[in-house]
Write a structure and sequence with these properties.
The protein is of the alpha/beta class. It has 3 domains: 6-99; 139-229, Nucleic acid-binding proteins (OB fold (Dihydrolipoamide Acetyltransferase, E2P)); 246-515, Purple Acid Phosphatase, chain A, domain 2. The chain has helices spanning 6-12, 18-25, 30-44, 51-56, 58-69, 73-83, 92-98, 120-138, 197-205, 262-272, 310-321, 391-397, 399-403, 411-420, 479-484, 511-515; strands at residues 15-16, 48-49, 104-108, 158-171, 177-182, 187-192, 211-218, 222-229, 246-250, 282-288, 329-333, 363-365, 370-376, 379-385, 449-452, 459-463, 466-470, 492-497, 503-507. It has a 6-stranded mixed β-sheet with strand order 3-13-14-15-17-16.
Length: 517
């Protein structure tokens, strides 16, 4: 063929087996090779493309091969033969009658590659995309009457509704709140009076840079607000699988820390391999970030490390994950302590520091955040994984959360992510990279379940039909946590049943281990 697929592989940061490289090079067009690589990377979350990976996602390989080879059956058969793939398009009905359908999944995440030097305009485009996406969601609200663009508001007082992004927020001497909202046509000030308790409470939770709708009366100079609307998230159908399959959730292992609870995590792994009725039903394990303690994360950290290098820490993590039964698929996303950039969306953990992770067959590395769709026939159950760096800012900025000391009940903070349809709406709340096509931290599709880590406390909530699970940890209280008054709740594992929708919590904490730390 007259093209070289090497450039595409290098740009995507992929590692490709030699025989797979030869296969890609012999595809009928460069577009076929690019589409196949893109598809495999997206659905698997892997950057190492092997023969085993192609076999695992054979249906997708066949679909692309069929598309580009057309009716050339001889070439198709050679492709399947070279890769050791069984042509699943043959005798499909016979196969269905003989085998029970396997559980499947799909992975969706934002592009984490940076293709050029970032400029101010990239951040502008990111906010523009955010506004337009959330505007479409808010436009579905039937109670937004007389909806107008800001530049269309006349000089005469009128009842109206607008959708805008919050540019400014301040409190007046009379304790009223003024919001400055802007859309793609202009900006305007909106007053929320303190003697309107319901709408004033909503105004208090408004953050900079989020997209909201308001209803009120006024003119082109000022609007008096009667109500505030958030994009919000609702899940009306409670998905249940026919097969009794369970999902388990862990986070914040902090392997390598001198406070790491190795006996407790081993107790969990022993249970996972036991004949316990619930353990045998677990088919998916979600590991939600901060898997290692890292190095150089904060000043003086080396004094608190039992393992001084990232490779040693990931070697310990790999030794745990190898013990997970092979029939359990593990999804693992990074956190701020992991070997990847801190800016969100975070890429998968770097192979250079964690080579042993790439050898574990049932481990799927994903980005932070990522959405995993678990599929049974025509049903899908969507799990949004996000480590949760922004949780602290939600608690600090929203009076209700701050007053209720929501670090003890972090799932309440995650509710606000769903309400605002964004994982970190305020520009300064997390370090992030703008999306070149759309805001990568938007919650575009409403998940069935959201799982986070970060706060080291297990908490479970249900918000508008959406399950929220914030993860426990496998590390005893650190000096920093003691200083700020955060009391971790280690060793807890929630298990969710996809058939009954029941959540069980298992405690694997070895008390003596805590006392010795």
């Amino acid at each position: 063929m007259n093209y070289d697929v090497t450039k595409t592989i290098r740009e995507r940061g992929l590692l490709v087996e030699k025989n797979i490289f030869e296969f890609l090079q012999n595809l009928p067009s460069e577009q076929a090779a690019i589409e196949l690589l893109s598809t495999l990377e997206k659905i698997s979350g892997q950057r190492v493309i092997t023969r085993a990976l192609l076999a695992k996602y054979a249906e997708h390989v066949q679909k692309i091969a069929n598309q580009f080879y057309g009716s050339n059956k001889e070439n198709l058969e050679k492709v399947y033969s070279d890769l050791g793939i069984v042509d699943k398009t043959q005798d499909v009905q016979k196969e269905k009658s003989q085998k029970k359908p396997l559980q499947k999944y799909q992975i969706f995440y934002a592009d984490t590659k940076v293709y050029k030097k970032l400029e101010v305009q990239d951040f502008v485009n990111n906010f523009r995309s955010r506004y337009q996406t959330l505007q479409r969601i808010l436009l579905q609200r039937p109670d937004l009457q007389n909806l107008v663009s800001i530049n269309k508001i006349g000089s005469n007082r009128q009842n109206l509704s607008i959708i805008g992004i919050v540019k400014e927020k301040r409190v007046t001497k009379n304790k009223n709140i003024i919001l400055v909202l802007e859309d793609l046509t202009g900006e305007i000030s909106a007053v929320i009076r303190s003697d309107r308790p319901e709408v004033f409470a909503k105004a208090q939770e408004v953050q900079f840079d989020e997209v909201i709708a308001i209803k009120g009366s006024g003119n082109g100079d000022l609007i008096f607000v009667y109500d505030i609307y958030f994009p919000d998230a609702f899940k009306y159908e409670k998905i249940r699988f026919e097969e009794e399959i369970c999902l388990a959730f862990i986070s914040d292992l902090h392997c390598g820390s001198d406070r790491h609870l190795s006996k407790s995590i081993q107790k969990f792994l022993d249970w996972l391999n036991s004949n316990d009725e619930t353990a045998k039903k677990i088919k998916y394990l979600f590991v939600v970030g901060d898997t290692v303690d890292g190095t150089g994360i904060f000043p003086g950290q080396e004094q608190l490390l039992a393992l001084k290098s990232m490779k040693e820490q990931y070697s310990l993590l790999a030794s745990y994950l190898r013990q997970v039964p092979k029939e359990i698929t593990i999804f693992l996303c990074p956190g701020q302590h992991d070997a990847t950039r801190v800016a969100e969306p975070q890429p998968i953990i770097d192979r250079e520091y964690a080579p042993y992770l790439y050898e574990i067959e049932n481990l799927v590395l994903v980005t932070n955040p990522a959405t995993i769709k678990l599929i049974e026939k025509d049903k899908s159950f969507n799990v949004l994984m996000y480590h949760g760096a922004s949780i602290h800012d939600f608690i600090n900025e929203i009076p209700e959360l701050r007053e209720k000391k929501a670090h003890k009940t972090p799932a309440k903070a995650v509710k606000y992510m769903l309400k605002k349809r964004h994982l970190a709406p305020m520009h300064s709340s997390v370090t992030y990279l703008p999306g070149f096509e759309e805001d990568p931290l938007l919650i575009k599709e409403v998940p069935d379940l959201v799982c986070t880590g970060e706060v080291h406390r297990l908490d479970i909530e249900n918000y508008n039909g959406i399950i929220i699970i914030t993860g426990s940890c496998w590390q005893s209280q650190t000096p920093f946590e003691e200083k700020i008054g955060n009391i971790p709740d280690p060793g807890k594992v929630p298990v969710f049943n996809l058939k009954t929708r029941e959540i069980k919590i298992f405690d694997f904490l070895v008390e003596e281990e805590i006392k010795n730390k």
